[in-house]
C-alpha cells in the first residue's frame, strides 16, 4: 500500500517534469524566430509570400501556444513529425539512429560496472596502501580527462600509430573483418566503448570504494568476520549487497544520460548514432528533428531517474518513508 | 552586542580566510590543482606577450604552410589553417577562463541567492524553489544549450546583435550559467538549513540582529567553504562545456578557443597530431586543475571527513 502510493507519486511527478521539459524545449527553440525564415535567411531572392506559404505548410502560421499544444498532442500519439532535410518520419529516424547509439552505450555501461566493482573493492580492501593510492590517482585523472580528448588519443594511438582498430564508422565499407558483419561490428565498437567506459569507470570506482570502506566498518561485517567467514565470502555475499545500492542509482543515471552525452562521443568516432544525428539536425536547423531528439533524450533521462527511484524504494523500504 | 560579536567571530573567520591557505598546507591534490590553475591564469594574462603573432594571423601559410612541423619561428608548428599553434593555445587560455568565470559568476549568484532564500525561509518557499531547481537538474542541459546557441546565432542575422563582438561566446556563457545554478542552490540550501539551527546563529538572533545581518554575517560565511568547492568544480565544468560546444562546431568564430582548435584540426589528426593533441591537453590540465583544487578545498573545508 505504502509502496503503491510512493510509486504513484513518483510517476505523477515524472509526468509533470516531462511536461515542463517539453515546454522549455519548445519555447526556447521556437520563440527565437520562424524556422522557415531562419533556414532561408541566407538564401537570396526569397519573397515574403514564399516564406508564408512554406510556413503554412508546416503549420507555423498559428500562434506559438497553439502550436505547442498541437505538438504535445502529436507527441502523445508518438507522431514526431517529418524531418525537413531528410523527408522521413522523425520517429523512425530516432529509433534506427538510437539503436546504433545503444550499441556502444549499453556495452560500455556493463563494462564499466564490472570493472569498477572489481577495482573499487580491490582498492577498498587495501585502503591507504600504495595500490589504493595508484587506483585513486588514476581515478582522479580519469574523471578530469575530457571524453573527447581521450577519444582522440585512443584514435591516434590504436588507429593511426598501431593500426589495430578503425578510427571511424560502425562498419567497414569495403571489406568486412574476417568476412563477418558481427566481428566487423565488434571491431568498430572497441574504441568508442573504451572511451565511454573510461569516465564511468573512474566515477563508479570511486563510488564503490567509498561505500565499500564504509560498509566494511559496520557491525554486521564484524559479526560475519567473528563467525569465521572468509574475507572473500564476506565481501561477495554481504558487503557487495550494500555497495550495490548507490551503484544502481548511478547506473540508472548513466542509462538516462547516455543519449545526452552521445553528440560528442559520436562526433569523435563518426558513429552513426542519435547524437551525430542531433548535431546534423542542428547544423541544418531541422526543427522537427531537433525537437524530436531533444524531447526523447529528456524523457529518457526523467524516466530512468524515476525508475531508479522506484526500484530503490522496492529494494530499500526506508526510502519510502521520506 | 559587541561582546556577542566577539564570541561569534572565531567561528566565522577561519572558515572565510583560511580555507585556501589550509587547502594549500594540508592537501597534496589541492597544491597540484592550485599550481595548474595558476599556470593557466598566468598564461591567460601574460601569454600574448610571449608570441609575436596575432591570434588571427595566417601569414605562416606563405612561409611554412599549413600543418608545419615545429621550427624556430613556430615553436609548436602551424595548424591546418596556417595559424601558429602556440599563439592559439596562449590566447585560448583567455577564452577558457572568461567562459569559466563568467558562467560561474551567473550560476553562483543565482544559486546562492535561490538556495539561500530556500534554506533560510524554509517551508512553502523552500518547497517551490527546490522543485524548480530539481527540474534544472534533470533536463539534458547540454543538448538544449547546443540547440539554443545555434538557433540564436542564426536568428540574429540582420539585427543589431549580428555585429556585436563575441556574440556567440556571450550566449554560450549565459546559457551555461543560466542552466548551471541548480547544484549550487541545492548545496547552499542544505548548508543554510544546517547552519541556521546552530547555536551561534540563535545567539545572534537573541542579540537582536536583523534577518539580513544574520544571513550575510553569520550564515553565509559559514556556508561558504562548501559552496566554494562546488564553484571550483563548476568552473572546470563550464570550461569543458564550452570546449565541447566548440568542438562540435557551434563555437564563436571570432574567439580563439581550444575546443574550436580541435574542431578545425581534428580531421587532420593523422597528418599533424600536435594541432589536435595540444589544445586537448590544455583543456585536460585546466579541468584537472579545477577538479584537484576542488578536491583540496573540500578536504580543507571538512577536515574530519578527510581520512576516510
TrEMBL record, chain B:
GO terms for cellular component: plasma membrane. It is found in: Cell membrane. The keyword Transmembrane applies. The keyword Protein transport applies. The chain crosses the membrane at residues 32-51, 96-120, 132-152, 164-184, 227-251, 271-294. Residues 93-294 form the ABC transmembrane type-1 domain. One of its GO terms (biological process) is peptide transport. Its main location: membrane. Belongs to the binding-protein-dependent transport system permease family. This is ABC transporter permease.
Amino acid at each position: 500500500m505504502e509502496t503503491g502510493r510512493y510509486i504513484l507519486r513518483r510517476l505523477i511527478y515524472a509526468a509533470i517534469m516531462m511536461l515542463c521539459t517539453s515546454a522549455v524545449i519548445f519555447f526556447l527553440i521556437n520563440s527565437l524566430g520562424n524556422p522557415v525564415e531562419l533556414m532561408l535567411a541566407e538564401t537570396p531572392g526569397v519573397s515574403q509570400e514564399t516564406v508564408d506559404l512554406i510556413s503554412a505548410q508546416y503549420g507555423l502560421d498559428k500562434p506559438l501556444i497553439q502550436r505547442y499544444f498541437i505538438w504535445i498532442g502529436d507527441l502523445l500519439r508518438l507522431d514526431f513529425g517529418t524531418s525537413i532535410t531528410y523527408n522521413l518520419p522523425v520517429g523512425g529516424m530516432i529509433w534506427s539512429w538510437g539503436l546504433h547509439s545503444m550499441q556502444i552505450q549499453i556495452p560500455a555501461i556493463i563494462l564499466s560496472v564490472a570493472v569498477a566493482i572489481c577495482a573499487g573493492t580491490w582498492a577498498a580492501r587495501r585502503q591507504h596502501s600504495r595500490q589504493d593510492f595508484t587506483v585513486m590517482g588514476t581515478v582522479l585523472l580519469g574523471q578530469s580527462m575530457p571524453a573527447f580528448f581521450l577519444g582522440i588519443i585512443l584514435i591516434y594511438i590504436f588507429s593511426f600509430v598501431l593500426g589495430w582498430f578503425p578510427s571511424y564508422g560502425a562498419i567497414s565499407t569495403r571489406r568486412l573483418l574476417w568476412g563477418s558483419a558481427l566481428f566487423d561490428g565488434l571491431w568498430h565498437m572497441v574504441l568508442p566503448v573504451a572511451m565511454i567506459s573510461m569516465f564511468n569507470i573512474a566515477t563508479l570506482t570511486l563510488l564503490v570504494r567509498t561505500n565499500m570502506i564504509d560498509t566494511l566498518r559496520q557491525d554486521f561485517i564484524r559479526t560475519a568476520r567473528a563467525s569465521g567467514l572468509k574475507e572473500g565470502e564476506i565481501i561477495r555475499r554481504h558487503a557487495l549487497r550494500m555497495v550495490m545500492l548507490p551503484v544502481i542509482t548511478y547506473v540508472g543515471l548513466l542509462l538516462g544520460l547516455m543519449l545526452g552525452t552521445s553528440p560528442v562521443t559520436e562526433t569523435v568516432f563518426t558513429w552513426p548514432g542519435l547524437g551525430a544525428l542531433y548535431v546534423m539536425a542542428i547544423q541544418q536547423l531541422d526543427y522537427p528533428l531537433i525537437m524530436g531528439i531533444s524531447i526523447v533524450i529528456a524523457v529518457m533521462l526523467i524516466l530512468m531517474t524515476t525508475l531508479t527511484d522506484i526500484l530503490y524504494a522496492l529494494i530499500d523500504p526506508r526510502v519510502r518513508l521520506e | 552586542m559587541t561582546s556577542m560579536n566577539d564570541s561569534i567571530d572565531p567561528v566565522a573567520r577561519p572558515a572565510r580566510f583560511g580555507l585556501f591557505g589550509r587547502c594549500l598546507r594540508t592537501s597534496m591534490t589541492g597544491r597540484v590543482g592550485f599550481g595548474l590553475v595558476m599556470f593557466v591564469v598566468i598564461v591567460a594574462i601574460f601569454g600574448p606577450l610571449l608570441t609575436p603573432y596575432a591570434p588571427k594571423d595566417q601569414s605562416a601559410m606563405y612561409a611554412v604552410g599549413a600543418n608545419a612541423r615545429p621550427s624556430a619561428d613556430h615553436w609548436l608548428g602551424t595548424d591546418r589553417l596556417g595559424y601558429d599553434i602556440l599563439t592559439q593555445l596562449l590566447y585560448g587560455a583567455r577564452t577558457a577562463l572568461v567562459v569559466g568565470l563568467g558562467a560561474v559568476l551567473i550560476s553562483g549568484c543565482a544559486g546562492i541567492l535561490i538556495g539561500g532564500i530556500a534554506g533560510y525561509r524554509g517551508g512553502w518557499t523552500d518547497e517551490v524553489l527546490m522543485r524548480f531547481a530539481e527540474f534544472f537538474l534533470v533536463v539534458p542541459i547540454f543538448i538544449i544549450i547546443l540547440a539554443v546557441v545555434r538557433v540564436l546565432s542564426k536568428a540574429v542575422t540582420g539585427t543589431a546583435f549580428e555585429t556585436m563582438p563575441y556574440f556567440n561566446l556571450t550566449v554560450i556563457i549565459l546559457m551555461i550559467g543560466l542552466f548551471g545554478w541548480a547544484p549550487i542552490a541545492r548545496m547552499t540550501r542544505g548548508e543554510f538549513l544546517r547552519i541556521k539551527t546552530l547555536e551561534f546563529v540563535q545567539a545572534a538572533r537573541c542579540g537582536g540582529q536583523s534577518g539580513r545581518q544574520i544571513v550575510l554575517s553569520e550564515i553565509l560565511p559559514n556556508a561558504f567553504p562548501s559552496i566554494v568547492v562546488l564553484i571550483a568544480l563548476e568552473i572546470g565544468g563550464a570550461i569543458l562545456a564550452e570546449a565541447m560546444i566548440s568542438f562540435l562546431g557551434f563555437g564563436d568564430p571570432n574567439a580563439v578557443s581550444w575546443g574550436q582548435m580541435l574542431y578545425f584540426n581534428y580531421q587532420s589528426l593523422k597528418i599533424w597530431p600536435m594541432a589536435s593533441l595540444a589544445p586537448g591537453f590544455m583543456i585536460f590540465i585546466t579541468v584537472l586543475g579545477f577538479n584537484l583544487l576542488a578536491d583540496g578545498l573540500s578536504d580543507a573545508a571538512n577536515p574530519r571527513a578527510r581520512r576516510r
